[in-house]
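Ops channel
N.P.: pipeline sanity check, posting one input/output pair.
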């Protein structure tokens, strides 16, 4: 299987995920008209092999053979499973939006690519507001927002990734002009420091428990995460019917991990929680990969 590449337009906006074909076997997997027809069907929506066989009017066993070859090459993957007639049937989807063959690579530029989970927040009818915790002691826990430098990086990346499609406003959670009724939100920071996160905490699939030092408690898996480096990335609906993306940690390192995950984990964050597919909610853990004392990588815990 090759690497996943990001296709961007001239303004640096993400337009597709591409699979880099890096060997003769991967190329051979495409060198068949029926396989191309299968890929075109899966580009429309995930399908079971029986559906593919019916739509293309070919034998089901033949479809299974070609699916096995394309799965081995990394072109397709399982989307879901269902028990049918005592057996488990897999439904398949594309592993990328397209494929690419690179004979040489350009040096890395300054293009910034964020997780497509942010796409859900873009709306022609609603503005997008990033809410930061006030740096002054406030709220029932007298918390201070100390993550503004992280939010600045995120705001810059949103501009670089989406261009003029989004007009982002940044406000403090104590700003009297904050209107939760007409905007989609990005709430940065946990409930100790950000009153928007505190307001939503009881409704979060992965919530914060003040009695356990703001440890993360997952309704999806039943697990508790109390490490300082743990954070959440979750998309929830507010009581007003708008969307809020919560990026927060047990403590500041966890919030940094959540924001780093937007750059590092990409498509995984836009998928439902593996333990409960009703929710787009993930727990991540920050990692100091180069040993310099700063979080620069992240792993997905759930």
């Amino acid at each position: 299987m090759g690497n996943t590449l990001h296709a961007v337009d001239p303004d640096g906006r993400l337009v597709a995920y591409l699979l880099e074909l890096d060997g003769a076997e991967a190329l051979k997997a495409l060198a068949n008209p029926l396989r191309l027809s299968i890929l075109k069907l899966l580009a429309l929506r995930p399908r079971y092999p029986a559906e593919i066989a019916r739509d293309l009017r070919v034998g089901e066993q033949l479809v299974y053979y070609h699916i096995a070859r394309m799965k081995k090459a990394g072109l397709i993957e399982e989307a879901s499973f269902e028990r049918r007639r005592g057996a488990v049937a897999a439904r398949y989807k594309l592993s990328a939006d397209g494929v690419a063959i690179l004979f040489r690579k350009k040096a890395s530029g300054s293009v910034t690519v964020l997780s497509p989970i942010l796409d859900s927040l873009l709306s022609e009818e609603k503005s997008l507001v990033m809410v930061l915790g006030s740096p002054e002691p406030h709220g029932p826990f007298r918390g201070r927002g100390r993550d503004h430098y992280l939010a600045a990086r995120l705001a810059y990346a949103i501009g670089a990734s989406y261009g003029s499609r989004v007009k982002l406003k940044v406000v403090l959670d104590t700003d009297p002009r904050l209107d939760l009724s007409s905007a989609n939100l990005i709430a940065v920071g946990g409930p100790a420091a950000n009153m928007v996160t505190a307001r939503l905490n009881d409704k979060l699939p992965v919530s914060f428990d003040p009695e356990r030092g703001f440890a993360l408690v997952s309704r999806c898996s039943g697990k508790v995460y109390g490490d300082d480096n743990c954070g959440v990335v979750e998309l929830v609906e507010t009581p007003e019917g708008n969307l809020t993306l919560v990026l927060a940690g047990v403590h500041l390192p966890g919030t940094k991990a959540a924001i780093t995950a937007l750059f590092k984990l990409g498509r995984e964050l836009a998928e439902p929680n593996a333990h409960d597919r009703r929710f787009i909610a993930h727990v991540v853990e920050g990692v100091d990969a180069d040993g310099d004392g700063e979080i620069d990588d992240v792993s997905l815990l759930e």
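N.P.: looks fine end to end. The chain has a mean pLDDT of 89.
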